[in-house]
Hints:
Elements: E1 12-17, E2 20-25, E3 27-29, E4 34-40, E5 50-57, E6 61-66, H1 71-84, E7 89-96, E8 102-117, E9 130-136
Antiparallel strand pairs: 1-2, 1-7, 3-6, 4-5, 6-9, 7-8, 8-9
Amino acid sequence: MLTDTEIAVGVHYLVHLDEHDLGDFATCDGLGVEVVLESREEGGNNGFVWQFPTRLKYPNIKLSRPVSKGTADTIVNWVVAAVTGPSRGTGRIEIRSADNKPVAAYDLHDVIPVRWSGPALSPDQPKVLVETLEIAHNGFVRTGSTY
């Protein structure tokens, strides 16, 4: 049973990709799965159309956070390494509560970077500088651990 401090409110996301610890992120968007259906109409049956599941489709995941000192050492180096010698690894997105307790974790299969966007640099609008990392994956890895 989750207590009030373990509910995912005011969370941050820790991201690990094989030997690369990409650190904390403030937002995580696109974590999910879609079942692709194929429709088949049966002759003489006008009451419904058969729906058959064909495959699973995983959207890209977008992670963002304020720029920090370690950005070049973590994300940029990982993206550059993936381009020079592409290898798909496993990844983990761990959801942590405001008091840094684990709430849930998602293990990803065949993770590869899609896009990194640095901050928009403009002297006329001082604001928090944000970087965004977009990753693709080929599904979730089943693990026995739960929180």
